[in-house]
Amino acid sequence: MDKAENTLGISWHDSALVPHLNQGNILDYFSERSNPFYDRTCNNETIKMQRLNPDQMLNMTGLEYTLLHAQEPILYVIRKQHRHSPTQATTLADYYIIGGHVYQGPDLCSVVNSRLLNTLSNLQGAFDEARTYARFHPTRGYSWEFKEKEEKEPTSKDKKVKKKEEASSAFQRKRVDLLLGELAKKHPPLFMPPPSQPPAKASHVEEVKTDIKTEKPTEEKPTSNGSMKPPPEKKQKLR
């Protein structure tokens, strides 16, 4: 069981043989001595050492490897199985070869365990975080207090990245201006005329000027002795 768990996290490849892989030699590539997924006690090794026809494996019993699927030149699937009879075999594991790299396909139990562990880990983290927001007061009881996370101070690396993002070359600025100019030519802006206003009526205010004539009384000149002469008496006309 430990061996199966360890092989799920490893891979194998031979850089010298990767460019020449095809459906005819993929089993020979998988049976390389340095491949940790290959079991040398299998029937394939017996057929190879005795130089027999590969079709004779159908008449043998025991462990064997067979090509299950081929999608040249990048994907091949090899199945490890235990043969009981020419028509009956039990699947033990599947291996997929992508770009010359060999991986072991996980079994259903490993997939379910991985998903359950991932789910439980996320749930545990959610409960731990929720517990930090719980508050208790003797009079009010339990309550929740959510606070915004404090913003981390930007490190020197973040500042450098920010500066790099903010900086722009002259070519970029000119390029943007050219693009904006082309867009303005293709789609000129529409200016709405201002609403017409009725002409304001000129109010003619007639100012009436009243001329007030003031008559100045004629001053009588004094005589030499300084006395004022009385006005002459009017004589009555005799008829």
Question: How would you describe this structure to a colleague?
Answer:
The structure is a single chain. The protein has a 5-stranded antiparallel sheet with strand order 1-5-4-3-2. A hairpin with a 3-residue loop joins strand 2 and strand 3 (75-85). It has helices spanning 2-7, 26-30, 43-50, 108-132, 156-166, 170-186; strands at 11-12, 62-71, 75-85, 88-98, 101-104, 134-137, 141-144. By secondary structure, it is α+β, with helices and mostly antiparallel strands. Helix content is 30%, strand content 19%.
Query: Mean pLDDT across all residues, rounded?
Result: 78
Largest sheet: 5 strands, antiparallel
Low-confidence stretches: none
Subunit arrangement of the protein? single chain
Structural class: alpha+beta
Count of runs of 4 or more consecutive helical residues: 6
Features:
single chain; 239 residues; alpha+beta; five-stranded antiparallel beta sheet; two-stranded antiparallel sheet; 6 helices; 7 strands; 19% strand; elongated
What's the short version?
This protein is about 30% helix and about 20% strand. With about 240 residues, it is of the alpha+beta class.
Question: What does the secondary structure layout of this molecule look like, with pairings?
Answer:
Blueprint: H1 2-7, E1 11-12, H2 26-30, H3 43-50, E2 62-71, E3 75-85, E4 88-98, E5 101-104, H4 108-132, E6 134-137, E7 141-144, H5 156-166, H6 170-186
Antiparallel strand pairs: 1-5, 2-3, 3-4, 4-5, 6-7
